[in-house]
Each structure stands twice: as C-alpha cells, then as structure tokens.
Fold each of these.
Amino acid sequence: MTRSGKIDIGILLLLADQEFVRGLRSQVTAQGFDDQGRSDGFVFRTLNDGPTTISGLAERLEITKQGAGQIVDDMEQRGYVERRPDPSDARARLLHLTERGQAALTAARKYHQNYERRLRRTFGDEAIDTFRDILTHMAGEAQVSTPHFRALMF
C-alpha cells in the first residue's frame, strides 16, 4: 500500500491480470482444454487470421523461429495445430488451427466476451469504455495499433 492507504495501481493491474487468467484457465479447462500452454492463445489468434509459416508466426509473435518451432511442435502434439503443404510453394509448410484449436479459441473468446459483459453490468458502459481508453493509453496507442497486436484482436 502507498502512504495514502491505497494499493499501488501497478500491483492492482498485476492482480487483476492474474485473476483474469485464472478465470480463463478455469473456464477452458472445464471445457476440456486443460493442456494449454502460456503462448497458445497468441498462436490461436494469429492462425485464426489465416495460415502462416513458422517464420511468419515467429515474426508476428516477435520471437525466434526456433522458439516458434518449439511452440508449434508442442501444440501439434496436443492436437491444436497442424502443418499442411503450401499450395504455392512445395517446400513450405503452412500452420493451421485444427478443429480442436478452433474450439479452444472459441472457448477463450467466449470467456473474454462474458467477462466484459459482467463488468458492463456491474459498472456500466461508460465506466468500461473509459477503462478501455485508460488501458489503451497505458499500453500506448502505437503499441495497440501494431500489426502484431491487431492479429490478436477478435
């Protein structure tokens, strides 16, 4: 707590994020997706935008090709992602979401939407719109507008 007796806003943001992730994990686990990794959601959203190569995924997620390859290998073993030949380049393989991957993404998106609906019922549309504006400002408009971030949106 600060001298004013209020909890530091950075700590509140961290705690709110942790609680959101706990709720999300609980929800998707209850729907049969109890094996998700920390990076899976980013990969789901990126591939939902369309198939890409491991290099393309690495670029979009701003990680190394080796890191992307490890994530994809793991997600492929768990049945969320599959590699298919690129029809325009026989040497390339495109990454696609499987039905399981698409279902996991749908479950996560549903949680996100329901979470926001609950906040809107509790605090009202104006408060949540203001909260969204504050978070956008905190993240930085330039950051929120990057192609990397845009790939993660609904």
Amino acid sequence: MAKLQRSKDHKVIAGVCGGIADWLGWSPTMVRVLFVASFLFPGPQAVFYLLAWLVMPKQS
C-alpha cells in the first residue's frame, strides 16, 4: 500500500483528494466526487480538508 501523502500528479487544489485516492487505489475523480457530495450532509468536511492539507506530507 502506498504512503498517505499529497499527490503532485493528481492535484487540483492541494493534492489531498488525489493523495487519498492513490493511498486507497481508487480513481482521484471518484474521491473528489465523494468529497464534494459529502457537503450535502452536515459535518466538518472543510476543516478535515484544511487539516489534511497541513498534516499530509507532499509527494516527493
């Protein structure tokens, strides 16, 4: 399994969704769609993204 890190190849904003997709072996588009769809439900999605942006290392 790949390391959890921000993707430099599948980057739209910060590479968080692309990094999660690489880590899970999923399509980056699917992870982005699921993340955007999660905003239909109340929760701290934006906070999670910002924290992941700060905590996840960049892919080298």
Amino acid sequence: MSIQTQALEQVYDHLAQALDSVPESGRTLMLTRLALLMSEQIGDSEVICRLIDQATLSG
C-alpha cells in the first residue's frame, strides 16, 4: 500500500497544522495518540514497529 505524493503532502500539511494547534507541552502526547490510532488501523505489529524504527532514524 502506498500513498501518492499529492496525498502525502496533504497529510503532512494537516499534521503540521494539527501540531501547531496543540500546546508544545502536549505535542508528544498527541503524536503518541496518533501513532496508536494509526496502528489500530494498520493492524500489523511488524509493519508498525518497522515504521517506528524508520521514523526514529529520520529524526
């Protein structure tokens, strides 16, 4: 499953706006909630862990 560049940019913009709307002290919690909600939708722990590792390396 893959997302097209335009759709990915839309997701990026939406996430950036959402993060801007949350006080800095709550951003980690918001991202944790988002990761858990997205994990529930993905439903594959191996994929989820791989994505977490990729995000960690990209940071």
Amino acid sequence: MQLRYAFRLYPDAGQRIALAKAFGCARVVFNDCVRAREDARKAGRPFPKAGELSKTLITQAKHTAERGWLGEVSAVVLQQSLRDAEAAYKNFFASLKGTRQGPKLGATRFKSREDARQSIRFTANARWNITDSGRLDLPKIGAVKVKWSRALPAAPTSVTVVKDSAGRFFASFVIDTDPAADASRMPATDQSIGIDLGLTHFAVLSTGEKIDSPRFLRRAEKKLKKAQKELSRKQKGSKNREKARLKLARAHAQVTDARREFHHQLSTRLISENQGIAVESLSVAGLVRTRLAKSVHDAGWSRFVAMLEYKAQRYGRTLVKTGRFEPTSQVCSTCGVKDGPKPLAVREWTCAACGAVHDRDHNAALNVQQAAGLAASACGAPVRPEPVLAQREETGSHGFPTGSRAA
C-alpha cells in the first residue's frame, strides 16, 4: 500500500521566494484550466482535452507577455497542477453520478492566493533528489534543509511541498510499503479488544483500561481566545494583522499536531498489541449538530478510526466496525439481557436479571467486542452469551436511539 511520510522543511529566504513563485504559477495554471472548461461549458462546446490544455496553457503561454513568468518554475509543477484540475472535475462528475463514495462534491472552484494551504508536486521525472548531506534538492528551487524525524523505509515515488496556514513548510513523500517488512514489524498475536469511544474518557477498552481524553482544544481555549482578540483589533491589510494571523494559526496548529500525535501513538499501540479490534461506528456528522459539537470535534474520533483502518490493513490486523445502532449500553455483557436505554448521567448500573454491576463504558466495550465476533475463550470457542428468554417487564421492543452515543 502507499503511504505518505511528511517532514518539516526549512527553506532560506531565496528558496522561500522560489517556492512562492512555484505556488503562484501552479495556482494560475489550475485557474486557467478551470476557466477554459467553464468557457467551453457556457458556449456549449465539449471540454478541451488534457493535451490541448497543456499546449495552450503552459507551452504557448510561456511565450506570451502575460504568462512569460511560467518559465521560471519547473514544468513538472505546472503539469501536475493540470492533472489536479482534471482529477477535481473527474471526482465532481463521479459524485454527481453517484459512482463515488463519500459526501457529495461541489463544482470545481478557482484557487485563491489567500487559501490556507498551498502545495506543489514533483514526480520522478522532475529529477529531484535527496543529497548526501540530507537536503531535498528541488528543480529551480535548490537544496532545502529537511528535519528528518525518521528514515524513509523505501525510495519515494513523488514529493509534495506544502505550505500550511501557519507559514510552515513540509515535504510529503509517497512511499510504497513492503508487506513482508510490515509483517515482521508486527508479529501475529492472539489478543483481541473492543473499544468504546466517548467524551468522559477518550476510549474505554474491553480489558477495563480507561484512556483519558486529553481535550487539547479545551486546554488551549484561553490562548486561542486571546490570539483571536488580538487579530480582530488589527487593521485589515496591515503587517501587524498578518503577524497576528500567523500567531493564531500557529496556536491552532499546535492543537492539531498534539491531537494527531496522540491518535498516532494510541492507534499504533492498539494495533501492535491486538490481532482483532472492534470499534463502534459513531454518527459524528449527527453529533456535531448538538450541544456537544465542540467536544466531539476536540476528540477527533473519525481521524482516530481512520488511523486504525489503514494501520490494520498495513499490518494484517482485523478491524471490525459494529453498527451504530447496536445497543451496547443497554445490554448486560454477562447474561445478554437488554433492559433499555439509560441517561448519559448513569455511569454504573446493576443488571436486574443476573445482578452484575457494570461500569457503563466498560460494559459497552465488552458488547462492542462481542458484537464484532472477536471475543474467544482459550479453546477458541465463542464466548458471546447465549440468547436468554426476555423477562416479563422487558417484553416488546424498546426501539433504537436516533443517533449514536456520545459517551
């Protein structure tokens, strides 16, 4: 499988200017492509082909007075910008037809120099390389200093240079992983686990372990509020406003980076210790429309589950998502009796059938594990409780909640 490895770049003053030119040229070519397609659509003509756009928007445009500066950057950067525009249109039409998974995509829009993220991509034919001293040598930009936090496991096939809203530069390398090497890093194990995600605790495991929620955004709210006030008081268009904007962006970037690092460490640990992992499918899109929106965003459940997915695929683990309407908080994990929904304030409860005392989240994690079919005894037989007759007061359907649990 293909993965991305990102490393921080530290370009000097001249290289920053060269990168700014490359970002601008790539953005102009992308916008010219969108404009050419929109003009053809309004005139009722067929969309121009990629080869025609490359000839008119890059090759011929370099010899004009209006676009002569396109020759100051690598041609590969411009070609990749055209491919990005083609991919954007392809994804949009696939979304309209319903052949593309995920949320519906809007029509392709023009890029702005004020966008929070600027990027350019170099493929292998751009003749970029990593020097013996560990610098990233890019065509028409130079050898840029790189902070190598780890070694690349294989030779990269392409590199994308990104500038984020905080003014930081990154090099993102595409790597084809070796399945044999990945298997040796994570030997097989007979352990399995269920995970109940929540807000009181970020995760409660079926083993009984509770992992506290770091609440990175909540802890940084005072600092972010102060930075936002300073930004709002600066005059628009002034240098001081740009400084205040960067200060606020860096504060938000620190929160994002800390949350991502927490997700990476926890997901890697769970993948390395367990052969099978069960997690509940949460309706994050529904929960962010409630009063818990800020806390749900702060937890970052979707990003964490996505990390578990690709790491499980990479290392040969099994990740099972249970249904979001599975009544994990209503069923006794000991005897299997369902006694109905409970308010979020109820953190412990006693089963009326067998008398077992349950911690709400731990019981839910056990039910998630059993619902996924991952729980097994030492002899390999399933340990999910056998069906039992409903008690008289439990006869009938309690119904399922309209959304997933928040805790």
